[in-house]
Amino acid sequence: MDLFDDQGPAPAPALTPRPRPSQSRIEAAVCAPDLIALGAALPAGLHLGTSSWSFPGWRGLVWRGDHSESSLSRTGLTAYSGHPLLRCVSLDRSFYRPLTASQYAAYAGQVPDHFRFVVKAPSLVCDALVRGKAGRGLQDNPAFLDPVPAAAEFVQPALDGLGPKIGALVFQLSPLPPAWLARLDEVLERLAAMLAALPALQPVAPGAVVAVEVRNPEFLTPAFAAILKAAGATYCLGLHPRMPPVDEQLPMLRALWPAPLVCRWSLNGRHGAYGYEDAKGLYEPFDRLQDPDPATRKTLARVIAATTGAALPVYITVNNKAEGSAPLSVLELARAVHEIGAPEPET
Q1: What distance in Å separates the CA atoms of residue 93 and residue 103, rounded to the nearest whole number?
Q2: What is the pTM of this model?
Q3: Quick check: 105 pLDDT over 80?
């Protein structure tokens, strides 16, 4: 009300400065002792992580201070990899445009030796359609599942740049339109030929695996499993509303056993097959669990425990859209895994 008295203009009120995103070195968040102990107790072959890392809302969960999304994208990976539970990350940008060996090497140089990358293959070879800027299919893609660009534009650059830090190279096949679903046998033939022609990963990255994720449940057949097994590849559990719940996808893993476990937990089922943007708007800034899914976590924890118990590697990446905050989902999943492996209390 001082602004309206008769004694002349009042001085401007003192304002508390809003914190600006830091331009300084990004440091890892300070973790509680029990969280550090949890990380140390997890199996060495278990690599939990998130889908990308450039989220300012993870302040206090993953890094200290306020940082812009662009700053985190450029230089935040080192702080991310300093978190005791975050032992891998999904490189999703490679889906939209192939990355070069030098780009991969720049990422590898930011993380410790135990860290692993889950890398998405480019849509160049994973989408049956060539799409316009709005995402609408324009025509059939002549490079769909073509082994030449799959090797030259994806697998070989990843081997050259990431080397032993490769965890899983994931061919996430975009949803097939009806015309292609009617030719599923042809798609499987193409897939088999492509997988057989890829460069071997093990000489460079002994724990690495090629995985195939699908968005059409029609793929989940013994024929699909046989193709993966023959190529030494595995099935990527795709936790997405387009696919059946995790329990109904487990027969694929049984058909491939023993094999590494690869899982990408992408989107909470409540949002439906096309609800990615809705989930983003509801969950930002991704700093708390808003739609907990303990049933999925419990199932994943059982599969993780069985796989690591057989001395096989596990690569699990979680999206913010799964429960609201990927780092907190990882924390709860790690706790569930630890509880399975913890000894029974004495009576």
Answers
A1: 11
A2: 0.90
A3: yes
